[in-house]
């Protein structure tokens, strides 16, 4: 549940910040008439994300078991790829997001109402589709359709409240640090989703090694225990993973987390040149 709360919070906050920046810019520039197309684009993006999630959930139930597992594993891998790209993109562009959105909005204002709708839709729709896909993958991995959904909805609700507080100027936090820490946690969550995605492909008979277990700690960490459920819901922990799952988990988590937390190069400011010594004044 916590993992899905984190997904909803981060993706929702990213979308909320984008909407806040767009709305604040229009209000400050006296273009309140352009607010309706913005909200229209946001509403369409939310509707598309909900429809996409519904198609994933109900469309997969008509497939055979092997087909469901193959679809689940494939979409899990795609979801991990999208989330990985998202956390690196946000880490790189968080500081310049406001100016980038202002430039796109200026172009849309010149082009007209349709361009405003498309701008808002694209800005919010990407986060919505990523959220729907990643939450669906997490639901498939945990086998619980209630708590992941509740966690994601709570995260989205928190993001909406924080976005409104940002707009009102009531909350100020270091967004760069926030997205860095939540991004690192999402990488850990994504590693578990990726490992379970490969497990689905093994159950679909697409990949071998389903019966080759790396270890089995089910006696020490029973899946039905509260702590087993907690580990399953947070990091997709499995007490009896296959060798392939452990290898995939390690090959993803270690290099991706290291690259994500690697500090960027800091340019040192140029040292000021020493001023030439002033000639001594002759004695009066």
UniProtKB/TrEMBL annotation:
- Chief subcellular site? membrane
> Which keywords does the record carry?
Membrane, Transmembrane, Transmembrane helix
Chain segments annotated as transmembrane: 6-26, 38-58, 70-88, 108-125, 145-166, 178-198, 242-262
| Organism superkingdom | Bacteria
Pfam families linked:
FTR1
Q: How does it sit in the membrane?
A: Multi-pass membrane protein
Where found?
A: Membrane
Is Transmembrane tagged as a keyword? yes
Q: Which NCBIfam families match?
A: EfeU (NF041756)
Family membership noted in the UniProt record: Belongs to the oxidase-dependent Fe transporter (OFeT) (TC 9.A.10.1) family.
Protein name, please? FTR1 family protein
